Every structure is written in structure tokens, then in C-alpha cells.
């Protein structure tokens, strides 16, 4: 029997207050707590206090639910793409892409369980494709041919996801092989620059490396656009 505190679960016909957005929000919260293995329709139904079958009115299958999780994280970064240069009255594509990359990294680090999905599932929902279309409009208006605009958007997104995956996997004990403590203990006469960098903590800040790489990409994109 349901407890007095949780209340009875709603049946298939009692979907008051539910929406696709609410289902996806609950799924993201569940994944944050339990990981992807804990995401089942039954568990999600328990989270929302509805029968599992009710969820199929909002997400037709498990693949649609997983696509929706990716959409949630990417959509949270999309507002950063709406960046207008007040002096020119037109979108500042560099600032927009810089802000998007930073916001996407932040969102992925906040929801690390979604990282495997972000690395393997392309934009497939209408909302995600709307953001892609808007980004391509901005880039083509800035002078990128359509094929280059696609390369710019895909390259940046893949870099952000890959960098964030590496951050999530490499964080941990600095004494592990390849860690700063381990590198600092190498033979200084053979690896003077490596050991010095490790001792002084040079080049190890993830956010600093990320920003450096994003700026390098933007400079390269701009050079290719001008050419």
C-alpha cells in the first residue's frame, strides 16, 4: 500500500501536472542520483508517483528518454548562443560560441552520468535541432559557408564533450601514474621540464586549459572564415 506521505500513484488516465519537460527533469534528477543503470521506466514512475505506462504518453520509448536527457543538458547551454553585439546590432558569433562552450562544459560536469550519452547520441529531438538550426543561421550570417558552419558547430561540441569526459575520468589521486605527484617524482635530469611543470602546477588547471583551447579554436575558425 502507498504510504500517507508519498500518496497514491496516479493511473494512466490521471496525468494532471505531468508534461514531457517534467518527465525529463525527473529523469535527469534520477540519473544524477543513481546513474544511467538506475534509469528505468518503473523507477521514473516511482519518482513521479505515476504508473510506468503513463510515461509513454510523453516519451514513447527508452531511446526517446535518453535523447531527452541529452537535450536537457544541451538546451541549458543554448541561451548562451543568443549573444548580440550592441555596437553592431548583430550576433557576436565568437562570444556566442565561447559562452555556449563554457555553459555546456558546466552542465556536463554537473550531470556526469549524461556524459556517455552526450558522446554517443547526436541531436535528434525537435528542440535540439531547433538550437542547431539557430546556430547555423548565426554562423552563415557571419560569413561561414554552410559546410564550414556545420564543421564549426560539430567541432566545438565534440571538443567540449571530449574534454569534459577526460576531466571526469582523470580527476583523482595525483599520485597515480601520470598524475602531478607521480610526474614530480620522475628523474629531473631526464625530464626537467615535465618535473618542473608538475612541481609548479603548470598546465594542470582544467578550466584554464579549456578556455585556452576554445580561444584557439575560435581563432582558427575566424582565420578559415576570412580565407
Automatic annotation (TrEMBL):
Domain of life where this protein originates: Bacteria
PROSITE patterns documented for this protein: HTH_TETR_2
Residue ranges of every copy of the HTH tetR-type domain listed in the record: 17-77
Keyword hit for tRNA-binding: no
Coiled-coil zones: none
tRNA processing keyword on record: no
DNA-binding region: 40-59
Pfam families named among the record's database cross-references: TetR_C_1 (PF02909), TetR_N (PF00440)
Stored InterPro entries: Homeodomain-like_sf, HTH-type_TetR-like_transc_reg, HTH_TetR, Repressor_TetR_C, Tet_transcr_reg_TetR, Tet_transcr_reg_TetR-rel_C_sf
Keywords: DNA-binding, Repressor, Transcription, Transcription regulation
Gene3D superfamilies referenced in this protein's UniProt entry, alphabetically: Homeodomain-like, Tetracycline Repressor, domain 2
Protein name: TetR/AcrR family transcriptional regulator C-terminal domain-containing protein
Organism in which the protein naturally occurs: Streptacidiphilus monticola
Amino acid at each position: 500500500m502507498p504510504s500517507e506521505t508519498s500518496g497514491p500513484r496516479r493511473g494512466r488516465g490521471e496525468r494532471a501536472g505531468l508534461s514531457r519537460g517534467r518527465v525529463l527533469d525527473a529523469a535527469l534528477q534520477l540519473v544524477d542520483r543513481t546513474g544511467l543503470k538506475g534509469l528505468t521506466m518503473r523507477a521514473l514512475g516511482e519518482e513521479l508517483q505515476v504508473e510506468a505506462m503513463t510515461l509513454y504518453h510523453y516519451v514513447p520509448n527508452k531511446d526517446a528518454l535518453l535523447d531527452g536527457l541529452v537535450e536537457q543538458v544541451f538546451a541549458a547551454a543554448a541561451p548562451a548562443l543568443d549573444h548580440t553585439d550592441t555596437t553592431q546590432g548583430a550576433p557576436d558569433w565568437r562570444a556566442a560560441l565561447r559562452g555556449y562552450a563554457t555553459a555546456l562544459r558546466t552542465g556536463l560536469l554537473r550531470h556526469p552520468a549524461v556524459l556517455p550519452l552526450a558522446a554517443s547520441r547526436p541531436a535528434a529531438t525537435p528542440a535540439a535541432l531547433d538550437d542547431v538550426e539557430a546556430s547555423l543561421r548565426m554562423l552563415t550570417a557571419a560569413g561561414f559557408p554552410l559546410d564550414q558552419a556545420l564543421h564549426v558547430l560539430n567541432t566545438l561540441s565534440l571538443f567540449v564533450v571530449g574534454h569534459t569526459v577526460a576531466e571526469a575520468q582523470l580527476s583523482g589521486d595525483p599520485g597515480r601514474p601520470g598524475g602531478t605527484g607521480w610526474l614530480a617524482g620522475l628523474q629531473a635530469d631526464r625530464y626537467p621540464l615535465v618535473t618542473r611543470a608538475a612541481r609548479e602546477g603548470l598546465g594542470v588547471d582544467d578550466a584554464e586549459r579549456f578556455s585556452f583551447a576554445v580561444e584557439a579554436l575560435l581563432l582558427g575558425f575566424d582565420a578559415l572564415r576570412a580565407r
